[in-house]
# Entry
Amino acid sequence: MDRKKLVLLLGALIIAIGTALAARSMFADSAAPQAQALPAEPQGPKVLVAQRALPVGTIITADSVAFQLWPKEMVQDAYFIDGESDMNNLLGTVVRHSITAGQPVTQGSLVAPGDRGFLAAALGPGMRAVTVPVSAKTSVGGFVFPGDRVDLVLTQTVKGSEEAALKTSETILNNLRVLATDQSTETTHTPDGKTVVRAFRTVTLEVTPKIAEKVAVAQTIGTLSLSLRSIADNQAELERAIASGEVDVPEGASKSEEETILRAALSRPRDGASSFVTGGDVSRFQRRSVPAPTASPAQPMMVSMDNRGASAPAPVRTGPVVNVTRGKNTVAVPVGK
# Structure
């Protein structure tokens, strides 16, 4: 092999080796992970932030707010700061101004039980507050506290004749939220954390305007009693309402919208067909229907009520009568009277 060919072959080998090294370096650089700049974590204290949208009237619970790091230069004096504010003291307070999700909770946006304006803030949109008198016997012995839900029972005596009357009791309203007992909107606790049970003479309930009218009339008819509801009742009735189509959750609704619809359905007072019990359902010596009034000569035909409240003709006294006319008035008088 001559010298010229040897030089060309050696040059080609050098070029091939250089190309291979360059390609290897290129692929190694492309496969190496790229270092990315991480977003700077906010440097500052933790402030109380809403975990979801909190409309007006929302009662603060442990899952509705949480402390979160917040830029120091954006912290305001009205914020609740971790280490300076105890979140346990905020549980049970009510949102006075709506708060969007992720927004810091300010001291002016919450109102605590016992503060001025708490009752108005606790009422839902379009709702009213009514107060009814109760006693130890009609208020579950004092075991009803603000935030509980109750049914309202009306007990009355329906008079017929002077000899007998109809004793009856009926549930007229369901799922009413207790706002206050007497003039207290908060629950009292002992130093060891136990709830204090005390008697009260009045209870304030959250109702719709129409139900408020019914409660006002019911107080003049008879005695009102509270029937405490179980916490599990609302969920079971909600499932029945969804199955029957009473509660309609539109397709494509977001999780927050669905929660809002279900929460409104759970808290809605119900005013529908009431259940009732008469004295005859409790004791065989009591009546099941309204007794017919005693017929008088001038009023031989009277109307009584059956056990379901429907009108039914009372028995008519039969026998010979004499028409007695005095001036322009004619009265049928039974013979022998």
